[in-house]
Specification:
This protein is of the alpha/beta class. The chain has 13 helices and 17 strands.
Length: 393
């Protein structure tokens, strides 16, 4: 029977019925090691007991009441996020795209409130991915995502990722902000250098711009700190967060300094479901785990071990792997061929991964993996690349 679903996804003929830790179990009875994590979403693995308990307990109390009223767990999660980051204020939504939309609206309102309504443009970067709404595909700038959706939403100028000179040359009297992913995900797992991020902060300050970090994918412990920009020692004015914040439950958040957040006055922005009690219970449970002493040390330890295994594979298969990218547990193997056949081969061998760009194999496993899971993944990767090498011989 034909599916009633729209055909906007290319799905594998594979359905999962349960998950546990870093594993998913298909309805065919087979177990898969999940180094995709729902595209960097299941940060604490599948059915993490503390998250599961928090969701079940909240489900028995209250699901929804709207933002017309105080939601105590929302107040608590906002306070904890502010206490752990640069931010003074937090607005909750349901996804990364919504968080980015909020950030872009905030830029326009901020400059309008300060008497500069002409400063609405945002400098973004080639290879970026900020979401699938009309505004966020324009912010991303990818022809592949923009095709068929003209006219393109105005307000975004794109420059080369990592090139501070191009950033400065692109600034005009209409520029209001710079928006960047500290580690590009969809664009190929490209990590910005600390010097580049520091340079963006200095440039934003020099020209009176807001600096936005899109940490939807690189945040929530993915690189071994709560947020990737922490490695550079600087902070943004606004930050978009989602994915790992809910550990699999839909949550997004826009974080901002007091000065930037003041632009969003009552009625200027909102969300029906954003910050609902179920989502907030899970978000607080995620922070319980991630802010616990030693958690990030564990992430960094297993990330270093993964780095070693991936470097060994890169050296062993130079004809198939051009290089290793990324940071922490957000890694990419740049292949010499189209990545999609390799993703399919790995599925057949029991390892789930994610393509990025056209030729990058993305590895974004749950942050709770151990060295034994890295070894298991490395063995499968080794076998797959060996097969590819034999075919090329």
């Amino acid at each position: 029977m034909d599916s009633a679903l729209m055909s906007n996804y290319r799905r594998f003929d594979l359905a999962f019925e349960r998950g546990e830790g870093p594993y998913l179990y298909a309805d065919n009875g087979r177990r898969y090691l999940d180094f995709a994590a729902g595209i960097a979403v299941a940060a604490l693995g599948h059915c993490q007991p503390h998250l599961t308990a928090a969701l079940k307990a909240q489900a028995d109390r209250l699901w929804h009441c709207s933002n017309l009223y105080i939601i105590p767990e929302q107040e608590r999660l906002a306070q904890r996020l502010a206490g752990a980051t640069f931010a003074d204020r937090v607005l909750f939504c349901n996804s990364g795209a919504e968080a980015v939309e909020c950030a872009v609206k905030l830029v326009r309102k901020y400059h309008d409130d300060n008497g500069n309504p002409e400063r609405y443009r945002v400098i973004a970067f080639n290879g970026a991915f900020h979401g699938r709404t009309l505004a966020t595909i324009a912010a991303s700038g990818s022809p592949r995502h923009l095709d068929g959706f003209d006219p393109v939403v105005d307000g975004f100028d794109h420059v080369a990722f990592g090139n501070l000179n191009e950033v400065r040359a692109a600034i005009t009297g209409e520029t209001g902000a710079i928006m960047v992913e500290p580690v590009q995900g969809e664009g190929g797992v490209n990590a910005a250098s600390d010097d580049f991020l520091i340079g963006l902060r200095k440039t934003a300050d020099e020209f009176g711009l807001l600096l936005i970090f899109d940490e939807v994918q690189s945040g929530m412990g993915r690189t071994g700190k709560l947020f990737a920009h922490e490695w550079s020692g600087i902070t943004p004015d606004v930050m978009a967060v989602a994915k790992g914040l809910g550990g699999g439950f839909p949550i997004g958040a826009c974080l901002a300094t007091e000065a930037a957040a003041a632009a969003l006055t009552p009625g200027s922005h909102g969300s029906t479901f954003g910050g609902n009690p179920l989502a907030m219970a899970v978000g607080n449970a995620v922070l319980d785990v991630m802010l616990d002493d030693g958690f990030m040390d564990g992430v960094n330890g297993v990330a270093a071990y993964l780095d070693g295994r991936l470097k060994a594979l890169t050296a062993k298969y130079p004809g198939q792997i051009e290089g290793l990218r990324g940071r922490g547990l957000m890694r990419g193997l740049k292949l010499t061929t189209d990545v999609r056949p390799m993703v399919g081969t790995l599925v057949e061998q029991g390892l789930l991964t994610v393509p990025a760009a056209e030729d990058v194999l993305r590895l974004v496993p749950p942050l709770i993996i151990a060295e034994e899971h890295v070894d298991e993944a490395a063995l499968i990767l080794d076998r797959a690349f060996a097969g590819l090498a034999d075919m090329a011989a």
